[in-house]
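Worked problem 6 (solution included).
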Amino acid sequence: MIRFRFSAMAVVSILYIFSVCAGPISAAPYAAMVIDARTGEVLHSRNADARLHPASLTKMMTLYIAFEAVRQGEITLDTRVRISQNAANEPPSKLGLRAGQRIALRYLIRASAVKSANDAATAIGEAISGSEAAFARRMNRTAVALGMTRTNFRNAHGLTRSGHLSTARDMTTMGRRLHYDYPQYYNLFSRLSTDTSMGQVRNTNRRVLNAYRGADGIKTGYTNAAGWNLVASARRGDVRIIATVFGGRSGATRNARVMELLDMGFARAPSRAPVRTPGFPAYEEPRGPLAVSRSVRPVPRPDRSDPEQMLALSEGVADALAEAEDVGNETPLLPGTRPAPRLIAEGDPEPDAPVAANLALEATVSTSTDPNAPTEMASAEDTGARFITVTSLEPPAPRIITRDMSPTAGGWSVRVGAFNTQREAEHRLLQVAIREMSMLSAAERKIDLRSGQFEAEFSGLSEQRAELTCRRLRAQSIDCDPVSPSSG
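Solution. The predicted structure is:
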C-alpha cells in the first residue's frame, strides 16, 4: 500500500513539473508582432507571416470599411439599417438583433467595436454592400490596397470559415490604419462601455484598458480554432506602440503577453520619431473584383412558347446571378446632393449622359473643408469631406422607372428594399427579377425616391401573386414586403 501511494505521488509530481515547464497545450499556433506606430517600424516579431484564424480581429476591417463608406457618402451614421434574418441568426457574441428590426448604423458600429457583436457586424456588411458575400469581396479589395498581402476574408465577423485567414503582421497593419486613417472614430475602441440603443454593452478588452497605462484599444478575438487573439495599442508621451498576439492559451495569458510586448515596444522605440501617416488607400482601377466585366442590363425576354429559348435562358440563370452579385459600387452620392433622374425604357441603349444634364438647373453650390475631427462618432460632413449642396433644382426629380411596362395583373406591389443609391436599387431589382422570373415576368420594376432612400419594387401584381412572391423571396433570405394599392 505504501509503495502504491509513493508511485502515485511520484507520477503526479512528474506531471506537475512537466506542465510547469511546458505550459498548457494550445491548439492554436502562436504568433506576435510589435511595431512603433509612428513609423511602422517592426520592433519584434514571431511567426508574424503565418496565416492563422483572425477570429473577431476581422471586425477591424468591417469597421474600417464602415468608416470609409461614411466618409465617401455611401451611407450615414444615422441610416436606419434593416436587419436581415441572416444577421439575426448569427451566433454569439451578439447584440440580440431581430429580423425586420431597424437600427441606426452608429449603434451597429458601437456594438461591433465594443461588444464584438457578430449580428451587428453582418448587418453592417449587408447595409453597405447588399450581401455578406459582396461585402467580403470589398474587404479583400481593401486589404490589398492597405498592403495586407496574406489576408483573405470570407465574412464580416470572423467566425471560423475555411479560407478565412490573416497574419499577425497584417492585423497589426490594420490596427495602425484604423488609428491614423480614422482618428475621429478611434475613441470607440477605448470605451469601457457604450450605448447601443438596446442597452449598455461592455468592452471585451476592458481588462487591458484598465490594467495597462496608456492603453486605448484596439480589438480582441476568440474562437476554438484561433485561440485568444488581441491587437492592442498604447500611448505614452509621444510614443505609440501596437502589439498583436495570435493563439493565446487563455484570455489571461493573452493579456499578460500583450502587456509584455507593449513594455518591450516602449523600451525599444526611440523617444522621438517622425510620424508617417499612411493616408487613405489608393484602389486600382477598375475596382478589382467589383468591376463589371460586361453589361448586366436585361436582354429582351425570350418567346416563352419556344422550348429552345427557354432552355437557353434557364441555363444562363446561374451566370447572370453571379454577374449581378459582382456589380460594383458606383460613385456615391455625397451628402446633400440629389441623383440625376433618368427614364430608360427596356431595350433602349445606355445614354451617354444623364437626362438631367439637358435640364435647366438653377443651383447654389457650397463646399466645406472643416478639418476639425469630433471625438464622438461624427457624420460624414464633420470629417473634412468636400460636398456639394443643391439648394434649388428645377424641374423636380421625376419618378424613376427602369422598365416601361404598364401594370396589367393588379394594383399590388412587392417592395424589395430601400437603398442609399439608385445603382444599389437597380442591382437588387435585377437580382430578384432573375431569381423569380416566373413570378415577376409581367411586373413593372420601379425605383421611388422617398425620404432620401431609393425604394425598389415590382408593381402590377395581384394580391395572391404579391403574397406568394414575398414568401418565396423570404425563403431565400431576401427582404420583401407586399404593398396594397391603398398603402401606395
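Discussion: The chain has two domains: 31-268, 294-483.
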